[in-house]
Specification:
single chain; mainly alpha; about 325 residues; about 0% strand; two-stranded antiparallel sheet; MetI-like fold; globular
Length: about 325
């Protein structure tokens, strides 16, 4: 019946009309209705498109163009080619210092976060009572740990007359040592703060552990595998995609760290540039020295470094990440 109707409609179409063109009144009404629906969809997408172009896409492209210029806020951009990038590698020791501090922070904090979060998730996965309460308590630091308020609290906690030294003095270990005022320990306080925010990774690990079939553990037990062997041969391989995801997100987050270093060091990256994160140095160049051209070049260099790190992790994942559908 449908075939007969379609054939009749095609026969009634005007001579020379393209195949599939709306020739009958019904087809024309259907085409108009589809166009209206498409226009409605575009209308709803317009705010997002405008926001992306004006707030994200436009500034990103502008910063790329500015990275090849000598531009101060009150001046006119002057094209300098790749001079800003050459300056980073040959004339700017603070660029290398900020990169060193950021990588040290990453290497010191990311593995500790993963180990701590995974071990705690394994412990909570044993069916203890009050599990929702524990999950909420451990997750809260991830929500507030990166806030300005916690950074201010961290500063008061580790300064020379802070809570830590007061507690040590109460047990007879009198010290006037400022943990955030010494280059040897200042970065360590920020590492501790990052490790304290292990809750998000723990929740993701716990969800992954819940998805591992109990039959797999039972089969391993019947083969004589003990708790350690089951963890190494069953838990870690089946959890490797979750581990990869958490490591990737934490690596990117470490490169983006800014608030804590800015608050603890009063925006200086001190003492002795020991907390000079790459993002903080970028901020200083752009919004303290007003060298927007050089700051834009630093931003694009950070993007390339993060992309390189992510690409390296993805390349490594082909060897160490196991997916259940693989044969």
């Amino acid at each position: 019946m449908t075939t007969t109707t379609d054939a009749a409609q095609r026969a009634a179409a005007p001579p020379g009309a393209p195949r599939g063109a709306p020739g009958t009144p019904g087809q024309r009404r259907s085409a108009v209705r589809r166009r209206r629906e498409n226009l409605a969809g575009y209308a709803f997408m317009t705010p997002w498109i405008l926001g992306f172009v004006l707030i994200i896409g436009g500034p990103v492209l502008a910063s790329l163009a500015l990275s090849f210029t000598d531009f101060h806020v009150l001046g006119t951009p002057r094209f300098t080619g790749i001079e800003n990038y050459e300056r980073m590698f040959t004339e700017d020791p603070r660029f290398w210092r900020s990169l060193q501090v950021t990588l040290t922070y990453l290497v010191a904090s990311v593995p500790v976060v993963q180990v701590f979060a995974l071990l705690l998730a394994v412990s909570l996965n044993k069916g203890i009572r009050g599990l929702p309460v524990y999950r909420a308590v451990f997750y809260v630091p991830s929500l507030i740990g990166g806030s300005v308020a916690i950074a201010i609290l961290w500063r008061f906690l580790f300064q020379d007359d802070g809570l830590l030294n007061s507690t040590l003095g109460a047990v007879g270990l009198d010290t006037a040592f400022s943990w955030i005022g010494e280059p040897s320990t200042a970065l360590g306080t920020l590492v501790v703060l990052n490790v304290w925010q292990f809750g998000a990774a723990m929740i993701i690990y716990l969800a992954g552990l819940r998805n591992i079939p109990s039959e797999t553990y039972e089969a391993a037990t019947m083969d004589g595998a003990g708790p350690v062997r089951r963890f190494v041969s069953v838990t870690l391989p089946l959890l490797s995609p979750i581990i990869f995801f958490n490591v990737l997100m934490n690596v990117v987050g470490a490169f983006q760290a800014f608030n804590t270093a800015y608050i603890v060091s009063n925006g200086t990256g001190g003492p002795a540039d020991s907390t000079l994160f790459f993002t903080l140095y970028l901020y200083q160049r752009g919004f303290v020295d007003f060298e927007m051209g050089y700051a834009s070049a630093l931003g694009w260099m950070l993007l390339m470094i993060v992309a390189l790190a992510a690409g390296g992790l993805y390349a490594l994942s082909r060897r160490v990440v196991f997916y259940g559908d693989e044969r």
